[in-house]
Design brief:
This protein is an alpha/beta fold and 226 residues long. It has two domains: 1-33, no CATH class; 34-225, Beta-carbonic Anhydrase, Chain A, CATH 3.40.1050.10. Helices cover 53% and strands 13% of the residues. The chain contains eleven helices and five strands; from the N terminus they run ααβαβαβαααααββαα. Strands 2-1-3-4-5 form a five-stranded mixed β-sheet. Strand 1, helix 3 and strand 2 form a beta-alpha-beta unit. Helix 9 (164-173) packs parallel to helix 11 (213-225). The chain is flat, with a radius of gyration of 20 Å. The structure holds zinc ion. Zinc ion is lined by residues 43, 45, 68, 99, 102-104. The site of zinc ion has 7 residues, from helix 5. It catalyses: hydrogencarbonate + H(+) = CO2 + H2O. Pfam families: Pro_CA. Reversible hydration of carbon dioxide. One of its GO terms (biological process) is cellular response to oxidative stress.
């Protein structure tokens, strides 16, 4: 009896032939290294892919996915990905992409003990608490759910901007820029929430300034003199 996953290996062989048909050096170039301009942080949901929905090719996007696209300062996985992307790959854009119909966000709106998921969903429940007045004023449950998806993206953008590596590199290079997007599974549309990166950065630095700005500015000025 054939196993369903065997199809994947058949698909893989087809994909190799397709790529080589378009460019005989495709895999040689891929093996030379990666220089992605984008870091994409999205949900693990099987419907919200990264490269496919953005029309990007292998090598163009550094990707991190977890349940409900959360960036938590205590989560070594997402913070290590961000630090590597910012300091070593020197990505120019960091995208937090949520999606309507997110099961993780829905679970965080559910008053129930969800076991191991509790600490993970706590971050999203905290987003609800931070924006409780706005969310509680929305009478339609579906609209409230959609708004929490958007607010979760916004708050995770703020969590990224709080990171020292992001602030420090922005002072030196004017990059990376942090973007908040939502993918609408029902239409396929990618929606830009137009997060005001500069404004958020200025605002949060009143409390979370981790730049050692005097030292960094002298480093930047010296770099410009060279
Ligand atoms: Zn999701």
């Amino acid at each position: 009896m054939s196993k369903s996953y065997e199809t994947i290996f058949i698909n893989n062989k087809k994909w190799i032939q397709e790529k080589l048909g378009q460019d005989a050096d495709f895999f040689k170039k891929l093996a030379d290294g990666q220089h992605p301009e984008y870091l994409y942080i999205g949900c693990s949901d099987s419907r919200a892919t990264a490269e496919e929905l953005m029309g990007m090719k292998p090598g163009e996007v550094f990707v991190h996915r977890n349940i409900a696209n959360v960036v938590n300062t205590l989560d070594m996985s997402s913070t290590a990905v961000i630090q590597y992307a910012v300091e070593h790959l020197k990505v120019k854009h960091i995208i937090i992409c949520g999606h309507y119909g997110c099961g993780g966000v829905k679970a965080a709106m559910t008053p129930a003990d969800l076991g191991l998921l509790n600490p993970w969903l706590r971050t999203i429940r905290d987003v609800y608490r931070t924006h409780q007045a706005e969310l509680d004023a929305i009478s339609c449950d579906q609209m409230k759910y959609r708004r929490l998806v958007e607010l979760n993206v916004q708050e995770q953008c703020i969590n990224v901007i709080k990171m020292a590596c992001v602030q420090q590199r922005y002072i030196l290079d004017d990059y990376p820029i942090v973007h908040g997007w939502v993918f609408d599974i029902a239409t396929g549309e990618l929606i830009d929430l137009n997060i005001d990166f500069e404004e958020i950065l200025t605002d949060i630095q009143k409390v979370y300034d981790l730049t050692n700005s005097h030292w960094l500015m002298s480093k930047k000025n010296n770099k410009n003199l060279l």
